[in-house]
Structure prediction request, 1057 residues.
Amino acid sequence: MTFRKSAGFLAILAIALVVSSVANAQTPAGTLIRNQASATFEDLSGNTYMATSNQVTTIVLPVFGVSVLPDGTAAAPGMVGTAIPGQTVYYSYNLTNTGNDNDDFTIIPLIDPATTMTLGLGDIDIYHDVNGNGVLDGGEPVISAGGVPGNIGPVSAGTTIQLLVEYQVPALAAAGEVAYVGMSATSVGDGTQVDTGNYHQTDVVSDASLTATMTGLPASLDPGDVATYTVTGQNVGNDIANGVTVASVGLTGVLIYDILPTNPSTGNPLALTGAPAGAPALGTVLYLPAGSPTVGSPETWAWSAAAAAGDIAIAYVTNGALAIGQNYNFTYDVTVPLTMPAGIINNDGAVAYVDNNAGTPDPTIVTTNNTQIDVNILAEVLVGPNGVPAAGTPPLYDDDSQAVANAYANQTIDFINTVRNDGNAADVINIVLDAGASTFPPGYGIQFFRIDGVTPLSNTGADAIPDVGNINPGATQDFIVRVTIPGNAVAGGPYLAVVHAVSENDPRELNVTTDEITAVNPAAVDIGNYDGAVGTDNVPVNINTDPGLSVDFALDVINTGGSSDNFDLSAAIPAAWTVTFYLDANGNGILDNPELIPIANVASVPAGGEVNVIARVDVPAGEVPGVNATTFRATSALNAGIFDEIANTVTVLGAAAVTITPDRNGTGTANGTVRYQHTVTNTGNVDDTFMFSALSSNAWSYAFFDLANNPIPSVTLVAGATQDIIVQLSIPGGVAVGTIETGTITVTGNGTGATDSAIDVTTIVAGNLVLTKSVNPVGNQLPGTELTYRTDYSNVGVAALTNIVIYDAIPAWTQFRVGSESDGTLAAGITAMTTEFSDDGGATWVLVPASGGGGAPAGFDARVTNVRWTLTGTLAGGVSTADGIALIVRIIAE
Amino acid sequence: MRRSLSAAILLLFAAVSAGAAFAQGPELKGEMAAAKIVVDEEKGEVVLPAEKVYPNDTVEYTLKYTNSGTATAAGVDLIGPVPAGTVYIEETATDIPGIKPMYSIDQGKTWHEAPVIIEVARRDGTVEKKKADPEMITHVRWSLAGNLDVGEEIMVSYRVHVK
Prediction:
């Protein structure tokens, strides 16, 4: 059974929604009340987070209760009926389970002591009126027979059943006798829950007596179906039943009438349909127009013989009196509207007549039993975009969708959907993702939330499926479909989340809506050169530098993705170069002192955000001139495959330099030669050929040789290379002994002009005094090491030498140890030595060394530049010493 | 419209909050507790476990949130739903300076101070403003006026009536 969704129906429901009230039914026993708190908060960067609590669960326990209607006492009976002697009477009661769980009830009849009729409890039976038609039908079970308590059940919580109390008026009863009969119902679940009393009154008469029974068929139906009501009865009395006069139409007869049941969702009466028919024949069908009052005796109401839309009651007036034993009936149809809520339609009718006893009030009104027709639950669900649950093409409404054009990696996209219960009963509506039809790739998350955005949809119904809760007919409920896009999402789309809203009342009933992300954009980053404004400059930048310096590149890193991201910083630079990144906190493009904290990445850059960084590149000393690629890269932490680069360059400038070391001291003889060894090093970053030249203080000549003794005018050295050379001084003949020759040896780059000089000082001595100098320890030494220099002397000539003075210079970066001068073992013929010190390169010899002199450490004197030994005696030809004069110096360590 | 429902629930991915990838930052840990409140003539209010209740019982929900992260949390909103089968009991939500409760009658979509005023359409088309029935309250929310520093906790409560 189904019905089409009707626009008119929906409009009415919309009104009903505004004025809807919440049902007051008790929470059923066994219900699990689940609750879960949630919180949202931010960090100080404005990123939003969510935290849910544990879920607490409470189970609802059963409570029991019972209600029997109508109430009544002997003084104020709930129902009054008449009967002639011997007549069997029936009184209909409603028993409602007012607890929250299924229950059985114990039923027993009651008789009030005011009863004058001869009646015992054993004379009373109570039946279950299964079809609720007010008539004891065959097969309907007796609950309490002969006054013995009996049980009925189980009765569902909130459900009402009908009971019939039956007994026979004794055949010998006299008119005027009365019976007050009631019933008691006791909950089996809780024996303290009792509804007792409920008395009705039966008067014994000797007059007309009409029975009146209403039936409603079918027992259950769907909205839109037709219900047929029939009122039947008989004059079971012993006199005729006279008619009432319906003034508005001028007709007199027994009036059978019914105030039509209403649709609770609209308040309107159910519309009559078809052709009402009554018996005995020749009567007239009457209608009570909309808005007519229904107070006072029914014959006084504004009945009309013409039907009209909105009639609120219907009647049949017989043509005159009903004879003894005569039957009557009245049948009419009503249409149950599409808007009819599921549940029970209660209805009862009545018949009005005038008896033959002038002493009793007229008319006599006999009310029928209450008849119930069950309106079936009709599930109808609509779901659609926010506020438009009925979107889509009728009749299925399944093709509606909403779309977000662009979304980004690491984003969450919330789609608000609205579901509406177009059924006729409150319904728990499940929300289910159609996995087969949805197209989001693996890694994406799809979750359902309440409209608060933080509470996940959970199951509140009878199944295990998340739902939007119990929705009253016509009501709507919004919920959120949240799509979480992974950080490493690649470009793609469109992607669909196909969402089903499914009735829990009828799981076959579902409606579809689709939430679409048309395009997903991956994480993205732009790194470029600092431009001092929003955005960046992607034009490569070159920085010139000399070797051994560092250069700073000011960079902008922009998150061009759609969500917050971290970016790792890296660079492709020449080997042996280093790069360090710093945050340019004040964004001025300059690395300031407070910013000298190295970073490896920039964190939490919001979508569209820009961060300024400085890349400091250290260029090694000796780096050759040229253009070097220095490419900087920013890589997304969300997706390592996403990065951007700026291809800058560093141009290393040519830096020419050369050294020639060390300065040398020596002695020579006239007509002799002296050879000094020097080391030439290309300390620049440019290959070059270095030319030799010498400037003699005496205009003497110098020549240059390699270590293989080949004359050379120059050496060609690549950057960083070194070569030893020999500088040879030729001393002219006739030069006076004691003459000092100072030669300035210069190397000059042929291409670069880089130049350096060494000083060779040569003292002209007589004969053939040869000095041999040694050092101990030999080899490379650490600062602080003390070096012992010893100079052995020998006369390699024939003639004896006298007035010998031996000079020694304190090397640079060393300091003289006070008292370390030593005469060694005097050579044969040398009788004594005098040692003197100079602090001015040998110009004067008056210095007396002192510990700490010149700021040296204790035991040393930094002022000493030269030391000389004046030998007393004669050094004959061929005489020598292998333990010559000596001194100790210390390599400066401070 | 009527078809067999073959689609199963699918959660492709267990979503976490967007900031969870970063260990640094605020982190709120929440606990919710339910207690049954009964009134004893001599002892006054007595707090009992709320694992089992009867219709018409009163249940108090207590929310406790602690900042167990490493940074201050700002803009803290705590939300307590009124679960199905219960009705919010007016004036039971914690209301102290700096933590003023707000109420929603639309599942947390919009928030209002108490009393919540609604507009009801009369049959003649006019609109009547009236106080919302407590049964309409779906959520209670507290917005913390200040920040929640590391290690600090906040506790609020509200009561519901079991229908």
In short: Chain B has one domain: 26-162. Chain B touches chain A through 70 residues (CB under 8 Å). Residues 26-162 of chain B form a domain with the Immunoglobulin-like fold (CATH 2.60.40). The longest strand of chain B covers residues 28-40.
